[in-house]
Structure formats: C-alpha cells, structure tokens
Amino acid sequence: GAEYPPGEFYTASPRMIDAGYLQALQLPLRAGRLLQPGDDAQAPPALVVSESLAHLLWADRDPLGEPLTLPWTEDRSYGRVVGVVADVPRALDNPMSLDFYLSIDQQSDWGALELVVRSERPVSALAAEIRTSLRLFDPDLAVGEVAALDSLISHAVAPHRLTTTLLSGFSAAALLVAALGIYSVVAFAAEQRQHDLAIRRAVGAPRGHLAGLVLRDGLGLALVGAVLGCLLAGLGGGALRGLWYGVDPLQPWLYVGSAVLIVAVTLAASGRPALRAARVDASRLLR
Questions:
Q1: How much is the pTM?
Q2: Which of 118, 101, 100 is nearest to 56 (CA)?
Q3: Cα distance between residue 158 and residue 164, in whole Å
Q4: Are residues 168 and 267 in the same domain?
Q5: Confidence at residue 101, expressed as pLDDT on a 0 to 100 scale
Q6: Please, how many CA atoms are within 13 Å of residue 248, restricted to the half-sphere of its CB?
Q7: 121 within a domain of the structure (yes/no)
Q8: Which domain holds residue 63?
Q9: Which of 7, 43, 146, 216 could form a disulfide with 127 if both were Cys (CB 3.0 to 4.6 A apart)?
C-alpha cells in the first residue's frame, strides 16, 4: 500500500467483469495478464488494476503479485494483482483512472450488470438480437437501453462540447471585430497620409513602397496586439485547463499559431487600404 499526507485520500472504483470484457474494450495490457475463464471460485482471487492505480500504490515496485486490501479491515483482500491495463478516463476534467477489475466468477454480489458487445454491425441491427438472447437466458431479466459506446461518450461530453462551441463562436466574433477595427484604423491612417504618399509618389517612390508603408502600420498594430494577447493568455491559461483535454494551454505552438493568425488577419484587413495607397493620384492631390 501507500501512505498519504493527512487529509489526502483517493477513491478507486471496483469493476466486476468476465474474462472477455477487457478484450472487448481492447484495453492495452501494460504488464502481466488479463483475467481468464479459469479465474473462478476455485482459483485464488485475481484482479487487474489500471495503470494510474498501479503507479499510485506501487510506484517504487512491481505491482504484479501485490495484494489489494480494503483500508478499513485487514482480514479481507480483493486478491492479488495479475495484470495492469491502460487507463480508461471517466471524465474530461479527470483523466486519472483509478480502477481495478475483479473476476465476476469470484464474486457473490453482482448487482446491476452491463453487457459489452463488440461488433461491426450498427446498434439498430443488434439491439433486437441482444434483447432476444438475454430473454432466452432469463425471461424475467430487465434489459435497459442498448446504445453504442460512441453515443454514450458523445452524451457525456455534451456540456464540454457546448462550452467549446460557445467559446469558438465568441472567438470568431472577436476576430471579425478585430479585423474590422484594424481595417478602419489602417484605412483612416492611410487617408490621413494621402498628401505624404502623393509627395513620395511624385518624387519617384514606387507603388509597392507606398503599399508597404500602409501594411507596416497594420503590422505594427498586429505585433503589439499579438504580444499583449500572448502575455494575457499566458497569465490566464491556468484558468482554462478545465476546458482543455489532452492539450496544455501553455504549449508554445498555441501562441505561435495565434500570433500567425493575427498577422494573417491584419494583412488581409490592410490589403485594401494598401492598394488604395499604391494607386494614389499624385498630380490630383498636389494640384
């Protein structure tokens, strides 16, 4: 076992399964073996633990062969570890999987059961057959919903998906407003510099140089905004960790990608004012 600081505790979830459950889910085996049909009432109690639970309890030694005992009693052991499998995250905001799997043939109290079926056929084609097979096994057996695992996962992450969709919509709206703002500022600045641009054109400045001056003003705004935005995002990134799964909000590529996006939007927004500056009629403005 392991000793924790006062006030700190963890909750591990027992899963009573048969020998085919882990194969049906195709959980990768990290060490030892999976539960087998021979793990019945006549065999020594065996269990398989998740990778996170194995690391938590036996980080400094091999978990295979170790007993797992209830913390409130010393005379009852769940059995000894015969294998370690990959984690199954229970929620997006809690990727740690503290699970251990017991052979259902070695347990006396089952409770409600869940049947896992792996098939290439759609659920609509399997549901009736599954219900018929279960009624042949026990006519009084109450059968609940038959659903695909993908639909269950989709339902579980629906609140996160809604939050992500809303944030994406707000981000797109903010990006559009920023693009309109950049266009307005750059266009106004170019209009204010019409006389200066006309003089430059009159003394031989190429049109590309005039367009570059306007683009430079826009890029200056973009660089300042990108730097300030990255700094603010870095300071507030910790608050967003609960909304991200499998992604560190402080990864450099996020900031580089955001900065590149801002520069690209700025160039697009500054394009029309730059073209107008390149086409300035020096003779008309200086007349």
A1: 0.61
A2: 100
A3: 10
A4: yes
A5: 92
A6: 4
A7: no
A8: 13-116
A9: 146
